[in-house]
Amino acid sequence: MERIKIKESVRIIRKKGICYLLGSNGKVKKYKPWLGDLFAFLYERIMQKSVFPKKFNASIDKHYNILKKEFENIHNTRIIEFATGSGDAVKYLHNDNVYGGIDISAGLLRIAKKRFDNFLFLDSELFVADVCDTPFEDNFFDIAFCNLSLNFFEDFDGFISEIYRILQPDGMFFCSVPVPERKTTKAIIHGNLYTSEDLKERFERQGFRFEPLPYDNGALFYFKSRRI
Ligand SMILES: C[S@@+](CC[C@H](N)C(=O)[O-])C[C@H]1O[C@@H](n2cnc3c(N)ncnc32)[C@H](O)[C@@H]1O
Predict the structure, then answer these.
(1) Which among 94, 106, 117, 156 is least surrounded, fewest beta carbons within 10 Å?
(2) Using a 6 Å cutoff on CB, does residue 108 contact ligand 1?
(3) Kindly report the CA angle at 81 between 114 and 213, in degrees rounded to 5?
(4) How far does the centroid of ligand 1 lie from the alpha carbon of residue 101, in Å?
C-alpha cells in the first residue's frame, strides 16, 4: 500500500517522529494552542472522570465499544484522523491500516506518537496541522474520522471542504460529537455545538450523503457521511 502522500508544495520537517509544516518563511508553522493543551498529560483522566460523566452524561466504555464496532472490519485502508489528540485510536483501529493523524497540539501528538509506536502500526504519520489546511494530496484517503473535536474547529465549513478534498470519491467520514439537543447536564461544553439537523444540512450542501447512526450515549451524536 502507498505511503501517505503530501502535496508537492508543502515542506515539512520531522522532529522525534512528528511532522511539522514549514511556512513560506521556512519556519515551523505555529498554531493557537488548544484550551486543553496545558493539561495534555492529564487528558485521558479528565475525559474519563469529568468530560464523559459530567459534561456528556455518557459512558466512555460504550463510546469505545461503538468505535470498535464501526472500525472492526477496516483493514489495509488509508485512514486519516482529524484531531488525533493523545492517540486513542490505537484502542479501536487495526494496525495493518495506513494511518495519518493531525492535530494542532504538539503536546498531545507526542503522547500519541509513543502509543502508535508501541502499537506497531504498519505505517503511521502524525502531523502538527490545522484540520482546515492539511498537507495531504487530493483524493488520497479511503476513510476519515473525527472524534469529540468538531465543536472546537473555528471554520466548520472549511473543515468539511477539506474532508471532501482529501477523501476519495465514495470515501467515508465517521464522526462523534456532542449536540445541544441531547445535552442533559448544566455543565458547559466548550466550542460551537451544532444540532444534528445543522450537521446534516452542512454536509449535504458540500456533496456528502449523511447517515445518522442509531447509538444512544448521552450528549453524543454519531454519524457517517459519504462523499458522493
Ligand atoms: C477533546 S480532544 C479529542 C481528541 C481525540 N479525538 C479523542 O477522541 O480523544 C480535541 C482535540 O481537537 C484538537 N483540535 C482543536 N482544534 C483543532 C484544529 N483546528 N485543528 C486540529 N486539531 C484541533 C485539540 O488539539 C485536541 O486534541
Answers:
(1) 117
(2) yes
(3) 125
(4) 11
Domain that holds residue 89: 12-28+47-227
Residue 5 lies in a domain: no
**What is the rounded CA–CA span in Å between residue 36 and residue 44?**
11
- Which atom belonging to ligand 1 lies closest to the Cα atom of 155? 19
69 domain residue, yes or no: yes
Could you tell me if residue 137 is inside a domain?
Answer: yes
> What pLDDT shows up at residue 43?
86
| Cβ-proximal residues to 107 (8 Å cutoff; 6+ apart), any chain | 37, 40, 41
Domain count, the chain: 1
Q: Which pLDDT does position 1 carry in this prediction?
A: 66
Alpha carbon nearest to ligand 1 atom 27, residue: 85
Q: Would 41 be classed as within a structural domain? A: no
Within a 10 A sphere around the Cβ of 212, how many other Cβ atoms?
13
* Domain of residue 155, CATH code: 3.40.50.150
